[in-house]
Write a structure and sequence with these properties.
single chain; 130 residues; alpha+beta; binds tetrahydrodeoxyuridine
């Protein structure tokens, strides 16, 4: 799976000296372009920026705005799931039926849709009376 390969590769570039938990993420857009991201931590903000957010930032910088598929990988006992903030960020750029595949280095994998990952999504429509 090319997306998994891309996430596996970029994970090695993660800058995670505080958690020592390296995460890689990759996404494909409808055009077929692949963007990648890894987590980047900071001494003042040790939680840093998530790999998924990095891949989304690369997509936006690359001039695209829609996610067709996303993959995330870490060396965790169970497939790593995007944090709450990242779920909202993914949902901003992905349809509800888009698949998010979460994997471990030793080959465990779980796939969920964006809707399954974030039920009750806050959308722009909620602000219609503003
Ligand atoms: N992290 C990610 O990059 N993605 C996730 O889905 C979960 C957590 C990162 C953030 C931080 O650098 C480290 O993992 C520990 O929370």
């Amino acid at each position: 799976m090319p997306l998994l390969d891309a996430a596996t590769k970029v994970r090695l570039r993660a800058y995670a000296p505080y958690s020592r938990f390296k995460v890689g993420a990759s996404l494909r857009t409808p055009s077929g372009a692949v963007f990648v991201g890894c987590n980047v931590e900071n001494v003042a903000y040790p939680e840093g920026t998530c790999a998924e957010a990095g891949a989304i930032a690369a997509m936006i910088a690359g001039g695209e705005t829609r996610i067709a598929e996303l993959c995330v990988i870490a060396d965790s006992p169970e497939p790593v799931t995007p944090c709450g903030g990242c779920r909202q960020k993914i949902a901003e750029f992905a349809d509800q039926d888009v698949k998010v595949t979460m994997t471990t280095l030793d080959g465990k994998s779980k796939t969920m849709t964006v809707a399954q990952l974030l039920p009750g999504l806050f959308t722009a429509a909620h602000m219609d009376r503003a």
